[in-house]
Amino acid sequence: MNCSDLRVLVAIAKFNLKVFKSTVFLDYWTPVNWSKPKECDIACKFRSKKEKSWHEYRNFRRFRIGVKEDCSYVVASVGWWHSGINATLQRPKLNSTLSTGGPKNLNPPSIHDDEINDTIPMV
Length: 123
Hints:
Elements: H1 6-19, E1 23-28, E2 32-33, E3 39-48, E4 57-67, E5 73-78
Antiparallel strand pairs: 1-3, 2-3, 3-4, 4-5
């Protein structure tokens, strides 16, 4: 089963509207395959209908997808919120060079001089 199929996303969105009635789902990312067959991980943005602020939360869930007799997809079961490799969005890596083109030195070398007493005195 290809979890990135649009019909899988529609089945998950319909399931969420039916089951999570006190939640407003704002955005879905494309579902990704899990190591087990017929299981898909999906990330979505949501907010609570009861909350007065418009703060958005992110949710990562694993859905088990079934196929009906008419070849349409249906959610067979849903897992709890989770994290993992497939749960988080892949962010682009930051450029590791400075604007001058040189590499960043994240750990500067420590300089130790034996002639300098830099110990903290005990009081």
